[in-house]
Amino acid sequence: MKDFLVIPERLARIKEVLERRQPDLRLFLERVVNYHNVSAILRTADAVGVLHVHYFHEGELPINDAITCGAHRWLLLHREEKVKEALTKLRDQGFQLVATGLFPETIDFREVDYTRPTVIIVGHELEGISETVRELAHAVVKIPMHGMVQSLNVSVATGIILYEAERQRKEKGLYEISHLSEEEIESILEDWAYHRVIKDKARGRLSS
Ligand SMILES: C[S@@+](CC[C@H](N)C(=O)[O-])C[C@H]1O[C@@H](n2cnc3c(N)ncnc32)[C@H](O)[C@@H]1O
C-alpha cells in the first residue's frame, strides 16, 4: 500500500466517506453555466453521497471554491464532449435517465425509484434541457410549482431531487454498505491522498 500524504485521521475520514458514496446515483449537468449554480450543485452532490458528476460545458466547469467549500474535490468530474453519446453510453450501462423540466410529459419527481442506477439530468438556466436529452430520457420529472414563477433555480431543483433520492436510498439501507470495491477505494485514495497532495504542494496550496 502507498504511503499516503495525509494524517491517518484524515485518511480514515476520506475512506469512510468513500464507503458511503453512491456511484450509481449520478448527475449530468447539461450546460449549467453560472458558477454559483454549478458550485452549489456540487456541494449538495457531495452531501448526498454522489461520486460521479458528468457535465457538458464549453471549456472548464465554472467552480468557485468558496461556494463549494472544497466539495468538488471529493467528486469525480467527467467532462463530456457529446451529450447524446455520453447519455447513450450510460443508458447502455443500465442507468435510467431522469431528466428534469417543465414539459407536458413530466411526472412528479417523487414517482421515480432513485434506488435504481440513475442519472439525474439538469439543464441550462434559461433554456433548460435540450431536445436530445428529452428524447433519450426514460422519464422527465417536475417539482410541483404552486406560485407565480414558473421554475426553480437549477441548484435548488437539483437539491430537492437529490434529497428525495437520498431519502429512498437511506430507507433501503444503501448508505450502510460500500458500493466501491477495495481496489476502487485504493485507487481513488491514491489520487486524493497522494497525487493531489503532491500537486497542491507544488502549487503552494495546502491540501484540504
Ligand atoms: C430555470 S430552469 C430552466 C427553465 C426553462 N425555461 C425550462 O423550461 O426548463 C433550469 C433547470 O432547473 C431545473 N428545474 C427548475 N425548476 C424545475 C422544476 N419545477 N421541476 C424540475 N426541474 C426544474 C431543470 O433542470 C431546468 O433545466
UniProtKB/TrEMBL annotation:
<dbReference type="Pfam" id="PF00588">
    <property type="entry name" value="SpoU_methylase"/>
</dbReference>
<feature type="binding site">
    <location>
        <position position="152"/>
    </location>
    <ligand>
        <name>S-adenosyl-L-methionine</name>
    </ligand>
</feature>
<keyword id="KW-0820">tRNA-binding</keyword>
<dbReference type="InterPro" id="IPR033671">
    <property type="entry name" value="TrmH"/>
</dbReference>
<dbReference type="InterPro" id="IPR029028">
    <property type="entry name" value="Alpha/beta_knot_MTases"/>
</dbReference>
<keyword id="KW-0949">S-adenosyl-L-methionine</keyword>
<feature type="domain" description="tRNA/rRNA methyltransferase SpoU type">
    <location>
        <begin position="25"/>
        <end position="163"/>
    </location>
</feature>
<feature type="binding site">
    <location>
        <position position="143"/>
    </location>
    <ligand>
        <name>S-adenosyl-L-methionine</name>
    </ligand>
</feature>
<keyword id="KW-0808">Transferase</keyword>
<comment type="function">
    <text>Catalyzes the 2'-O methylation of guanosine at position 18 in tRNA.</text>
</comment>
<keyword id="KW-0694">RNA-binding</keyword>
<dbReference type="GO" id="GO:0000049">
    <property type="term" value="F:tRNA binding"/>
</dbReference>
<dbReference type="InterPro" id="IPR001537">
    <property type="entry name" value="SpoU_MeTrfase"/>
</dbReference>
<feature type="binding site">
    <location>
        <position position="100"/>
    </location>
    <ligand>
        <name>S-adenosyl-L-methionine</name>
    </ligand>
</feature>
<dbReference type="InterPro" id="IPR029026">
    <property type="entry name" value="tRNA_m1G_MTases_N"/>
</dbReference>
<protein>
    <recommendedName>
        <fullName>tRNA (guanosine(18)-2'-O)-methyltransferase</fullName>
        <ecNumber>2.1.1.34</ecNumber>
    </recommendedName>
</protein>
<keyword id="KW-0489">Methyltransferase</keyword>
<dbReference type="GO" id="GO:0002938">
    <property type="term" value="P:tRNA guanine ribose methylation"/>
</dbReference>
<dbReference type="GO" id="GO:0141100">
    <property type="term" value="F:tRNA (guanine(18)-2'-O)-methyltransferase activity"/>
</dbReference>
<keyword id="KW-0819">tRNA processing</keyword>
<comment type="similarity">
    <text>Belongs to the class IV-like SAM-binding methyltransferase superfamily. RNA methyltransferase TrmH family.</text>
</comment>
